[in-house]
Write a structure and sequence with these properties.
The protein is globular. The protein folds into three domains: 114 residues, Acyl-CoA dehydrogenase/oxidase, N-terminal domain (Butyryl-Coa Dehydrogenase, subunit A, domain 1); 109 residues, Butyryl-CoA Dehydrogenase, subunit A, domain 2 (Beta Barrel), CATH 2.40.110; 142 residues, Butyryl-CoA Dehydrogenase, subunit A, domain 3. Strand 4 and strand 5 form a beta hairpin. Helix 4 runs parallel beside helix 9 and helix 11 runs antiparallel to helix 14. The chain has 383 residues and is of the alpha+beta class. Helices cover 52% and strands 15% of the residues. The mean pLDDT is 97. The strands form three sheets. A four-stranded mixed sheet has the order 1-4-5-8. It starts with 6 loop residues before the first helix and ends in an 8-residue tail after the last helix. The protein binds flavin-adenine dinucleotide. The site of flavin-adenine dinucleotide has 23 residues, from strand 1, strand 3, helix 13 and helix 14.
Amino acid sequence: MFPPPNADETLYCDALAKLLADAAPVQRVQALDKAKAFDGELHAALAGIGAWGIGVDEAAGGSGGGPVLQVMTLERLGRHATSMAVFGVIQYMATRLLGQYGSDAQRQRYLAALCAGELRASFCMTEAGGGTDILTTMKTRAVKTGTGWRLDGSKYWISGASTADVLIVVARTGEHRSRGITSFLVPADSRGVTARALDTFAVNGYDTCELLLDGVELPADAVLGTVDQGFMQVLGTLNSERLNAAAVAAGIGRGAHRLALDYAKEREAFGRPIGQFQALQHKLVHAGVDLEAAWTLTLNAARLEEAGADVSVESAMAKLAASGAGQRAAQLGMDVLGGAGFDLDLPMQRYYRDIRLYSFAPLTDNMIANFLGERWLGLPRSY
Ligand SMILES: Cc1cc2nc3c(=O)[nH]c(=O)nc-3n(C[C@H](O)[C@H](O)[C@H](O)COP(=O)(O)OP(=O)(O)OC[C@H]3O[C@@H](n4cnc5c(N)ncnc54)[C@H](O)[C@@H]3O)c2cc1C
């Protein structure tokens, strides 16, 4: 269906699989999930095999590679350490924005250190008023001062903001709806920046935050890319972000499916393994096929993007397919495990909770369907 992994991809994926087996065994992931703690050791180990530098040229401190290696990494992480997979989506978005739009000085200051795992970044766009219609709801504003910019406002549901070193903050700088928005690189320890971790029910190993920006003074060179073009810059990264979200969702679904399958082979009722009952067997088959189809769409779109194609439709399809397949697989997994689905020492309930994120992030499935209705099926715009 698509070319098999090449030698470099195989070598890297084998190293990643071994690392995850050694550094992220189930008991450890569950313990950190219960403790709501980020796995700093796993993050460092992943940096050690170059995972955080994928998509960035080696000359800039990255590890080379592109969309294909990114989705392969995130799918694996989704299966094992979901919160780290979510971190990976943000990491790849931040390094892409910096690599594509950063000045030489900005890239020197941040890019190699992010790839090496020495620094962490957050991407701060959503506000409390709503994420889908962000162009209407965005209240965070940056105004020019004699020396640079002053930033005021707040952001909500921001991954990693209380533990990041640098924040990419998207703020209104002009009145034009989409071409009046600018991205800024804000050191997290700047005066006037406060991040507060929110109490959430999933993705426990990675903080989700409210970010307050109270008269934050920034130098002129804090602008990332071009003034008033920040939203257009973000739009330019959307395909990759959708593909990366699809990869995590497919990975979470595959993790849930594998666990359900193992359980169905072991657990007995009425003198036989529960996997012998057709009521479960057929559902496991359908869920597996769904997941393979979603992963095929994802990998295929990643290969097309790596070859330079416009994958706006394909990446949206992959995200929609993987989000749905992942949610159905986790739901089935909870059914197959019965009461054991409630066991916090087992990952099923974590998969079931964490997969929810990719039904609405980075863009809700409804909006992805709106986009596909218009751009793929040629129907009138629905919103
Ligand atoms: C754990 C977590 C991590 C996150 N990380 C980040 C991050 O790092 N950075 C960041 O900027 N944001 C982040 N977000 C925010 C995320 O991107 C938003 O939640 C998402 O964009 C949806 O916005 P909303 O929650 O405000 O939903 P709303 O926009 O209020 O939507 C609510 C519902 O209305 C539906 N809806 C709205 N408009 C339409 C329409 N036209 N047609 C059909 N249905 C519609 C939506 O599909 C959805 O079902 C995160 C959120 C969470 C929970």
